[in-house]
Amino acid sequence: MNVGAGGINVVATAEAYAGGVAGRTDNAKITSTGVSLGGTVRAEGYEAYAGGVTARAGASTLESDFVLENGSNAAVSASGTVVRVGGIVGRNEAAVSNCKAFVNVTAESSATRGSVYAGGAVGYTINTGGTTSGNVAACYFKGTVTVTVADGSSMEVNAGAAIGRTAGGVKCGRLFVNGNVVVVNKDGTNETGVLVGRFDSAKDEYTKCYVAEGNGVTLNGAAYVPGEDTPVIEALKTTDASNYDNWDWVGKTDNLALDGNLWEVVDGKLILKAEKTEA
User: Fold this and answer.
1) Which of 165, 152, 73 is closest to 112 using CA atoms?
2) Of 220, 209, 214, the residue nearest 259 (C-alpha)
């Protein structure tokens, strides 16, 4: 599917759902879907949900969903009082795996109160019951997550380059991040991280999560260093973030022992197996 330069823009008074494939899914399975973004997927409403694949995923499964950047204007964005936005999914109760998001994610709000959850892959992922609900595995995000809130607002902001917020106890593994987080929310509350913004340290599980060197969080104009209780991440063995795109670090660590054997090295680059083309 190709989203052209005009993009997708959903405006609603109450709930707005904007997705590259579907606005909202439940009891569905989306697999091997290529989404080429030449414009913007955007939701505007009191409750605004936006995702490169789907804005809100209920009891569903998302596998091999590719959100591929195709132009400098490619972005997923949302604006409202209750905002959930992510490169793959805005609000997620599904099992998400083997996904890429090569887009910029943005969220804005001029409301006096409310909440914004923004993530490079998933804005808000929650386990609503079961062994796979809310889990995010083998996903790669490249881009910038930007949240801007008007001065004087008591807005709650949770933002991360992979996931904005988790809840209910989720399992996250094999997350690869080459992106920064920029938040402006001077009068509200902020929980941000280069991997996950807000998480449940007692219930969540994180395994083999990687962030390219040189990536970080800027909060209200200053560099922000998350607390010691943030999810354990492993810096990639590169000299700078630009080398991340060349995958020079592949094969030097245990990175290829991935869930489902989804990734492999081809011509010195780490790719998803579903990306291979026949000779």
Assistant:
1) 152
2) 209
Question: What is the DSSP pairing of strand 263-266 with strand 269-272?
Answer: antiparallel
Q: How far apart are CA 53 and CA 147, in angstroms?
A: 20
For residue 262, give the DSSP letter: -
Q: How many CB atoms lie within 10 A of CB 81?
A: 18
Report in angstroms the alpha-carbon separations of 23 from 18, 31, 41, 89, 247: 5, 16, 10, 10, 33
User: Under a CB-based contact definition with an 8 Å cutoff, are residues 81 and 114 in contact?
Assistant: yes
Residue 14 falls in which region: left (phi positive, over 0), alpha (psi -120 to 50) or beta:
alpha
Q: What separation, in Å, do the N-terminal and C-terminal C-alpha atoms of the chain show? A: 23
pLDDT in tens, 18-73: 988 878 888 777 776 556 666 688 999 999 999 988 899 987 666 654 555 555 56
pTM strictly above 0.85: no
Cα 201 to chain center, whole Å? 19
For residues 147 and 157, the answer to whether their CB atoms sit within 8 Å is: yes
Measuring CA to CA, which residue among 139, 128, 130, 209 is closest to residue 166?
128
